[in-house]
Write a sequence for this structure.
C-alpha cells in the first residue's frame, strides 16, 4: 500500500493491533505514518512512546489534542513537549501556544513574556478557568495584565470579579472591568479603602450614566 492508503487505513477503528504493528515495521522511515500510528488507540503503548521523541513540537501538540489517543501516551507527549518548548525560538513558541489544547495551558502559569501570555489568552481553546488561574497566580502579574488588556477577557463577569478582588490589579484593569461588574461588585470595589480615587470616580460616573439611561 502507498502512504496515503496506509494513513487512510489507520483512520479506521476496525484495524487490528497486529496490522498496526505490521504497518509500523513496513513504514519505519515514514514520518506521517509514524505520527498517525502514535495516535491510534490500539497501537501498543511502548511503541507509541518510542515515536514521541522523534516528532516535531507541533505534532506533539496534535498528539496531546487527539482525545482518541491513549491517555498515557498523551501525558508522555505533554512531558516531551514541555522539555522541547524550553529550547524553541520565540516565534515558534507563540505559534504553538496559539494552538495548544486547554489542558496544556495551565502548565505555562509562570510564563511572564507578554507576547506569550497574549498567545495563551487569544488561543481559542483558552477557557475562563485558565484565565482565572493566571489572575490568581503569584505576586508578579503586571505582564499578565499587560497581555490581558489586548484581549476581550475583561468582558467575562467571572474574570472581571476576580480582577476587582485582586489588590495588585492596575488601575487600567480595574477601570476596564467596571461595565462588567454587578452592582454589589461595584459597591464593594467603591467602598474598599484600598481602591484608587480614579477608580472610584469612574464607578460613580458609570452608575450615574446608567441611572440616567433608565
Amino acid at each position: 500500500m502507498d502512504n496515503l492508503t496506509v494513513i487512510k487505513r489507520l483512520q479506521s477503528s476496525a484495524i487490528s493491533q497486529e496490522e498496526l504493528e505490521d504497518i509500523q515495521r513496513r513504514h519505519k522511515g515514514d514520518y506521517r505514518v509514524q505520527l498517525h500510528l502514535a495516535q491510534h488507540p490500539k497501537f501498543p503503548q511502548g511503541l507509541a512512546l518510542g515515536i514521541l521523541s522523534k516528532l516535531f513540537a507541533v505534532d506533539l501538540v496534535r498528539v496531546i489534542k487527539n482525545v482518541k489517543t491513549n491517555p498515557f501516551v498523551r501525558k508522555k507527549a505533554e512531558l516531551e513537549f514541555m522539555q522541547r518548548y524550553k529550547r524553541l525560538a520565540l516565534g515558534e513558541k507563540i505559534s504553538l501556544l496559539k494552538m495548544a489544547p486547554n489542558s496544556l495551558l495551565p502548565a505555562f502559569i509562570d510564563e511572564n513574556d507578554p507576547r506569550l501570555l497574549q498567545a495563551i489568552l487569544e488561543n481559542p481553546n483558552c477557557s475562563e478557568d485558565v484565565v482565572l488561574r493566571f489572575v490568581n497566580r503569584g505576586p508578579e502579574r503586571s505582564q499578565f495584565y499587560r497581555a490581558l488588556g489586548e484581549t476581550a477577557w475583561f468582558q467575562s463577569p467571572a474574570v472581571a470579579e476576580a480582577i476587582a478582588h485582586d489588590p495588585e490589579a492596575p488601575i487600567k484593569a480595574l477601570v476596564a472591568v467596571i461595565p462588567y461588574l454587578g452592582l454589589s461588585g461595584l459597591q464593594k470595589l467603591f467602598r474598599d479603602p484600598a481602591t484608587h480615587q480614579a477608580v472610584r470616580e469612574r464607578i460613580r460616573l458609570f452608575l450615574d450614566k446608567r441611572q440616567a439611561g433608565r
In short: The chain has a mean pLDDT of 92. The chain has two domains: 1-87, 90-214. Residues 1-87 form one domain. The longest helix spans residues 197-213.
